[in-house]
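Design job #97: recover the sequence.
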């Protein structure tokens, strides 16, 4: 029986291995996607029986649902032990991190894509012949290709040996010749620099290491490398090495490269992932012939320039590596690298990502086609943001400890001297309910003003189709339920318009896009993203006062709503009054949360002033006091709850400003002038308005808005300070009513 142990059913579907296809081979083939299927020891012993074969994905036990360290190690060790001790038990390890195939006596290893591409050939052969022939699994429809290539290599070596016998090539150019280990390649040059590529160095990191070792000090004119080397000749590792050389930062990355080959049928290269590198400038395949090596050194090619390199490498269409769980992980590492270089910040975790990006071919490829130039670096002075008070920022992201934490600590703490912290949790081993509870508790405990929130935080979020079920959205909703004034910025790789719309509807105050590789097509995208980040933070910190507004509104609700019940309280308030003032306060905040433009601020100011007018109606008696001195009849006015009379505020006709007098307000008619009523209300409440100048500003601003005309121009602009001043005036008044 053949067992496939791979936790990613989605990956199987992507390669065409759906349930129907797996069921077709059910007599000989069993797919295991969960630890629960092999949890019992007797089930594992059955799998390890002699005559069976296991195809094991290296990251199976990295999955949260399969994470059993003890059993995971035990099963891995048992796979290796049984393959070594039992003649007819084979195990093949596969992973997206493998760059090449290696077939050996116990089984072998291979890239995940090769396994699924060839699995059909392998199972059909097993079904027809009842024979485990790993050549079908490793080489697909041409199981004999390795033997054929080995024979062709031996013939070509022999012919070249004869050609150069006592007559090697003399060349004035500086040539570097690389050969594969144990391939018996005869050096056709009398003089050249020679290096050998051993099988252990065919990984991305191995190739990058050798390029740094061999290409950093001496400059060459021509580089000769074998098309076929490594444990599997049909991997055509020379194509991959060529791309590594072109995408590496060395003095030889632009030199002429010749791939020497013994392959007669070049069409077998067409399906190789790196085939398109042959379409780029100054890279050629030459035959195992002396004349071809001679032509290569004699041929004068136009130099490849550094300016041409990105356009040439774009001819290669390279797919993301399969060892990443999803595009989310790739985008994170790519963005961390781009942002850290652009704002010039680093730590051990960022350096680890940089080292990976410098050795991983996919990231080297991306860095080559989307290079960061010196002018893209942003200095600290351009990262300054404007804020008041002492705001606190909390960052919630499952990737925080990969480098984002250091980037934002540098931005907030080092540059802007703003309190910054992040949520510490084991995101792989926590459920959604626990994470939401932990996040909200942290926000409460630390009195957080702004939350920087990732969209997808848990592995299960990537499979959810309903956006409302995604963890980031649920945390956003909980934060806004706690206090709508707490600013929440979504920091995510998602740029799907429907996601952004839903997040905005849920109350998100801003968006910052994590840079995915596809975003980097746009010149200067990284700089624009960071500049947008600064703008978003500035906008949110400008609205930071809304948190205090909402806290005070909640406080007023607690105090005023019970007073609507005339029968149960000693100091009741009119029901309509309570409902009206709370409604206007809420609307005022909602307007400001959406936008701080002139229209929103003006409308908000008027809503707040409506509350002040309602307050005035409650405080000032509507019944005037008639004074009849026979020769002089006039009216005075008083407050509803005390017998104090309203005083007169004198208006300066030239400036329009009012000043308080010691005289009672007297009028020949029964009606109270509007301005006198409002000024007496403010004076009576003894609110935070501390001077006649403040009184005049509030009244004057309201009159400017109501009687607006073109001559007022900038006077119609409402500042945040004026809004805060009026809100606090109203709040203090409602507290004292």
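Job complete. Output follows.
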């Amino acid at each position: 029986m053949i067992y496939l142990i791979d936790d990613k059913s989605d990956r199987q579907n992507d390669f065409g291995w759906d349930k129907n296809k797996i069921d077709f081979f059910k007599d000989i083939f069993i797919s295991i996607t969960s630890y629960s299927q092999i949890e019992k020891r007797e089930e594992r012993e059955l799998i390890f029986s002699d005559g069976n074969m296991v195809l094991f994905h290296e990251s199976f036990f990295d999955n949260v649902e399969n994470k059993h360290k003890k059993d995971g190690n035990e099963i891995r060790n048992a796979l290796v032990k049984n393959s070594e001790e039992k003649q007819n038990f084979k195990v093949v390890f596969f992973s997206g991190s493998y760059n090449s195939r290696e077939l050996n006596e116990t089984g072998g290893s291979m890239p995940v894509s090769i396994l699924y591409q060839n699995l059909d050939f392998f199972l059909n052969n097993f079904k027809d012949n009842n024979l485990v022939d790993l050549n079908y699994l490793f080489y697909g429809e041409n199981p004999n290709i390795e033997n054929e290539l080995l024979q062709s290599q031996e013939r070509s070596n022999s012919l070249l040996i004869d050609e150069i016998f006592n007559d090697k090539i003399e060349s004035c150019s500086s040539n570097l010749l690389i050969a594969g280990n144990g391939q018996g390649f005869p050096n056709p040059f009398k003089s050249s620099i020679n290096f050998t590529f051993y099988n252990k160095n065919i990984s991305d990191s191995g190739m990058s290491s050798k390029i740094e070792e061999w290409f950093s000090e001496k400059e060459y004119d021509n580089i000769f490398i074998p098309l076929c080397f490594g444990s599997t000749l049909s991997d055509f590792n020379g194509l991959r090495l060529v791309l590594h050389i072109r995408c590496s930062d060395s003095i030889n990355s632009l030199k002429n490269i010749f791939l020497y080959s013994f392959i007669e049928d070049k069409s077998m290269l067409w399906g190789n992932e790196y085939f398109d590198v042959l379409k780029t400038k100054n890279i050629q395949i030459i035959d195992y012939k002396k004349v071809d090596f001679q032509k290569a050194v004699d041929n004068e090619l136009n130099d490849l320039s550094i300016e041409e390199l990105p356009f040439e490498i774009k001819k290669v269409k390279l797919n993301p590596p399969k060892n990443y769980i999803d595009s989310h992980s790739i985008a994170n590492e790519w963005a961390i690298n781009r942002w850290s270089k652009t704002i010039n910040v680093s730590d051990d975790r960022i350096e680890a990502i940089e080292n990976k990006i410098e050795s991983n071919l996919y990231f080297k490829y991306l860095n080559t086609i989307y290079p960061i130039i010196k002018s893209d670096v942003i200095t600290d002075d351009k990262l300054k943001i404007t804020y008041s008070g002492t705001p606190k920022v909390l960052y919630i992201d499952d990737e925080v400890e990969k480098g984002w934490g250091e980037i934002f600590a540098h931005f907030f703490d080092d540059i802007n001297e703003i309190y910054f912290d992040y949520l510490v949790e084991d995101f792989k081993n926590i459920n959604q309910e626990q994470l939401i509870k932990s996040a909200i508790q942290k926000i409460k405990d630390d009195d957080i003003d702004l939350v920087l929130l990732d969209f997808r935080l848990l592995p299960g979020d990537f499979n959810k189709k309903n956006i409302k079920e995604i963890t980031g959205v649920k945390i956003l909703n909980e934060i806004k339920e706690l206090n709508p004034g707490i600013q929440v910025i979504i920091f995510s790789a998602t740029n799907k318009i429907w996601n952004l719309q839903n997040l905005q509807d849920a109350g998100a105050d801003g968006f910052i896009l994590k840079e995915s590789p596809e975003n980097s097509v746009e010149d200067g995208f990284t700089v624009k993203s960071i500049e947008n980040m600064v703008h978003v933070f500035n906008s949110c910190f400008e609205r930071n006062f809304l948190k205090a507004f909402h806290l005070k509104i909640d406080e007023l609700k607690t105090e005023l709503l019970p007073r609507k019940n005339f029968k149960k309280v000693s100091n009741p308030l009119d029901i309509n009054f309570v409902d009206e003032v709370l409604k206007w306060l809420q609307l005022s905040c909602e307007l400001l949360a959406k936008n701080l433009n002139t229209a929103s601020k003006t409308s908000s100011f008027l809503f707040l002033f409506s509350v002040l007018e309602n307050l005035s109606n409650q405080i000032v008696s509507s019944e005037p006091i008639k004074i009849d001195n026979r020769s002089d009849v006039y009216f005075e006015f008083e407050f509803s709850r005390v017998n104090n009379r309203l005083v007169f505020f004198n208006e300066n006709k030239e400036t329009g400003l009012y000043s308080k007098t010691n005289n009672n307000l007297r009028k020949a008619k029964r009606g109270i002038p509007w301005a006198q009523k409002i000024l007496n209300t403010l004076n009576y409440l003894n609110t935070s308005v501390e001077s006649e100048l403040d009184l005049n500003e509030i009244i004057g601003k309201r009159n400017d808005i109501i009687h607006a005309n073109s001559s007022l121009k900038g006077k119609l602009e409402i500042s945040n300070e004026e809004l805060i001043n009026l809100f606090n005036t109203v709040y203090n008044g409602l507290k004292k009513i």
